[in-house]
């Protein structure tokens, strides 16, 4: 049975976290909170499972690695939840790669980037995203997955 037929298992959601997010819980807890990346992944897995989706989660500090994962994801996933971290504000290459899988994208920021330095106010990812969530702590990942599941249908 093909994955697009009614009743078929949906393709998994891809959760991507960008640079320095492996240090969640240690890095600037006054900005990013006490939760760790493992907590984020566990929350995302629980939420996706509740909605009938599998989850693939990955974090990297290497931009080319993230771009390679996006190339490999084409045809393999039903949507993307991404916290691009600092690449949000800098990377045309990441933005170009994000459209390659051709699936809905949700952009998540743990902190409210709009309350912070001006360089964090611009995002190369937001114009590609179905939704943007910022400032809700790690609960933003849960909200993003719920909304993504709705968008996927
Ligand atoms: C972040 C905000 C970015 O500006 C920053 O570079 C990060 C994390 C957030 O989750 O709030 O690394 O994406």
UniProtKB/TrEMBL annotation:
Transition state stabilizer, annotated site positions: 27
EC class name: lyase
Active site: 32, 109
Documented EC number(s): 4.2.1.10
Pathway note: Metabolic intermediate biosynthesis; chorismate biosynthesis; chorismate from D-erythrose 4-phosphate and phosphoenolpyruvate: step 3/7
GO molecular function: 3-dehydroquinate dehydratase activity
Protein's GO biological process: amino acid biosynthetic process; aromatic amino acid family biosynthetic process; chorismate biosynthetic process; quinate catabolic process
Assembly and oligomerization: Homododecamer.
Assigned protein family: Belongs to the type-II 3-dehydroquinase family.
Known function: Catalyzes a trans-dehydration via an enolate intermediate.
Record's protein name: 3-dehydroquinate dehydratase
Source species of the chain: Gordonia mangrovi
Lineage of source species: Bacteria, Bacillati, Actinomycetota, Actinomycetes, Mycobacteriales
């Amino acid at each position: 049975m093909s994955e697009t037929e009614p009743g078929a298992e949906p393709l998994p959601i891809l959760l991507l976290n960008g640079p320095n997010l492996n240090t969640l819980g240690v890095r600037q807890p006054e900005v990013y909170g006490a939760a760790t990346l493992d907590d984020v992944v566990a929350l995302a897995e629980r939420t996706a499972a509740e909605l009938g989706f599998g989850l693939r989660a990955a974090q990297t500090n290497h931009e080319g690695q993230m771009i390679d994962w996006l190339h490999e994801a084409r045809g393999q996933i039903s949507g993307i939840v991404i916290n691009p971290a600092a690449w949000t504000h800098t990377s045309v290459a990441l933005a170009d790669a994000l459209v390659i899988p051709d699936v809905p994208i949700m952009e998540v920021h743990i902190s409210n980037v709009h309350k912070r330095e001006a360089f964090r106010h611009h995002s190369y990812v937001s114009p590609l995203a179905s939704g943007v969530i910022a400032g809700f702590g790690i609960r933003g990942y849960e909200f993003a997955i719920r909304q993504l599941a709705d968008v996927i249908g």
